Write the structure tokens for this entry.
Amino acid sequence: MHPLHRILATSALCLAAGLSSCVTTVHRYVWNRAKIVDEAYWVKDLKNIELYRVGDTVYAKGFIGPARGGQATNDIPARVLVVRGGAAPCFTPIEEQGKPVYIKVRDGYTQLRKTAAFLHSSDSDKNNGDVLYVSWSAPRYSSHLTELPAKAVRLSERGSSLSDIDVMSGYEPHTDAHKYYAYPLGGLIAVGVDVPLSLAGNALLLGGAVVGATVALPCGGIYTLYEYCTQDAPEEPPTSEATPQPQNTPST
């Protein structure tokens, strides 16, 4: 591809990025609080989960209760092309209304011990202690207990999980009385905060694309002119000279 063509293509991509949608979602921190899930499941400490064994079945101690809607705080509340962002809606448990529940762990006790032994043997960090790395299905689709039977035994190992139990648990959220303040306040924030921020963000992206194109195009023209002026002239093919023929002199 010709250098000028490459520069033009790059400028076009920058312009497309500038015209892409940049949308902030600050209002959803309040807006989503109108939603609630009646039966959410969670554990308080993902690295120190109480485990109980009933036969070969292992249960993790958790809690059941309502969860209030909101927006995740571990990412920027905006969506921009090529830039990671866009905090997602989430539900936070209302812990003071939670009740203990014992959720069935996906694998049996024997399998958990084998998995833990494999992880510990392949891990250079030997300070993990006695840990069982547990996983589970959504509590709605797997068995759970509100009370432990008398034969339940508390395990000496602590449970650890990479991800929390899905507080949605397959149940659809609904709105409650919080909608009477969440929706109006969220609407005001959307108009007063998100709209100006979105317009400013798109303006910055578009301005950057225009500046990039303004700089790139003259540079491309200069480079093309330089390339034309400095290229070597084509060599002419060699011409064969005619061999002189001897002239006949008149005889005397």
